[in-house]
Amino acid sequence: MGEFQPWHLLVVLVVALLLFGPRKLPELGKGLGEAMRGFKDGIKGTPDAPKDTTATNSHPIDTRPIDPK
User: Fold this and answer.
1) Pairwise CA distance, residues 42 & 40, whole Å
2) Domain total in the chain
3) Which domain does 21 fall in, by range?
4) Tens digits of per-residue pLDDT, 1-52?
5) Torsion on CA atoms 28, 31, 33, 34, rounded to nearest 10
6) Does residue 16 fall inside a structural domain?
7) Backbone φ and ψ of 53, nearest 5°
8) Residue 68 lies in a domain
9) Residue 8: its pLDDT value, please?
10) Residue 38 domain-assigned?
């Protein structure tokens, strides 16, 4: 039951071809590849990933003590 046979992949490809058609499959493959690449980059923490700016003081806050007069 837990074995993967090469013909399983063939059945999945034939079903995908019947559902989406030959024109849509390359677009789906490209989108899946980009999503997987983005996921791997996110896991690795690549330097081109957006940095978290919440830790910096991006909002001016008046930190002067209040004069009690």
Assistant:
1) 5
2) 1
3) 6-44
4) 578 888 898 998 899 899 988 889 889 889 999 999 999 998 887 565 455 5
5) 180
6) yes
7) -100, 5
8) no
9) 92
10) yes
